[in-house]
Amino acid sequence: MMQQKRSYSQSLADLKSRGIRLTPQRQVILQFLKETDEHPTAEQVYQKIGEQFPGISLATVYNTLNMLKELGVIREMSYGDMSSRYDGNDTEHAHLVCQSCNHVIDIMCPPQEMLATPDIAQHNFKIHSYRLEYYGACPACQSAQSFKSDAS
Question: What percent of the chain has pLDDT over 70?
Answer without folding.
Answer: 91
